[in-house]
User: Which sequence fits this backbone?
């Protein structure tokens, strides 16, 4: 998969993709991640990336011209109808469709080239959304000051699901949400720490019992903090 991130704060991404699974996936050429400064695609003297909103109001709106130029440069088309198959252009904003594990899995499966536009300020000129964007995505019901942290979340959630990104010692199958439930609790040595004991079931080597205990704990946890998941109220979880 190739990922291109469009941002007005390229330095924000410094080393953020250089650790753990993402770093390994990059080294193994499972993913290539490039960060681009939207300002590089301006053509005016002042290299303006934003402007005041028509109709008035607070804040600034990201201008369409540099974003259109960037997409044309990266994809070779400036209308989503003309993108090659497997191409996604994501706009990160609180107005988007909520990011869920199922959506991350869908992207990992189907996408060869993903361009991520990090929204800023009061928003992005709507013509970007109308013409260029294939998927407007939100990472949750809260407002960030920009899409940059959300881009990191999205890339991480997708890249770890790419074939061979996780080592053989780990697997995404047991992740929280992969079965519509939260994960069960984990313990490691020592078996007793400051008087706190690891549950007996995990120590006795009976795998059927351990599986049963884990399912029960996952269900207990899910019921107590995320009962919406059990009621199927979470859409495309
Ligand atoms: N930009 C600002 N808030 C956001 C959110 N919740 N998700 C994605 N992008 C955002």
Assistant:
């Amino acid at each position: 998969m190739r990922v291109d991130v469009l941002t007005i704060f390229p330095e924000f991404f410094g080393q953020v993709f250089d650790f753990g699974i993402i770093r390994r996936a990059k080294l193994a050429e499972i993913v290539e991640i490039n960060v681009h400064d939207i300002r590089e695609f301006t053509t005016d003297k002042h290299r303006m990336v934003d402007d005041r909103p028509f109709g008035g109001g607070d804040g600034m709106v990201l201008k369409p011209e540099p974003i259109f130029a960037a997409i044309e440069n990266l994809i070779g088309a400036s209308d989503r109808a003309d993108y090659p198959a497997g191409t996604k252009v994501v706009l990160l904003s609180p107005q988007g469709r909520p990011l869920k594990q199922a959506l991350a899995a869908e992207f990992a499966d189907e996408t060869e080239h993903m361009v991520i536009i990090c929204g800023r300020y009061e928003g992005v000129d709507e013509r970007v959304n109308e013409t260029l964007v294939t998927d407007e995505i939100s990472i949750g019901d809260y407002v960030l000051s920009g899409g940059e942290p959300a881009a990191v979340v999205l890339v991480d959630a997708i890249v770890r699901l790419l074939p061979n990104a996780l080592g053989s010692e780990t697997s995404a199958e047991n992740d929280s949400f992969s079965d519509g439930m939260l994960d069960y609790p984990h313990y490691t040595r020592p078996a007793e720490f400051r008087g706190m004991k690891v549950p007996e079931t995990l120590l006795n080597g009976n795998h059927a019992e351990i599986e049963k205990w884990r399912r029960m704990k996952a269900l207990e946890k899910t019921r107590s903090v995320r009962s919406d998941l059990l009621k199927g109220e979470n859409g495309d979880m």
Summary: The first strand starts at residue 2 and ends at 7. The longest helix spans residues 207-225. The mean pLDDT is 95.
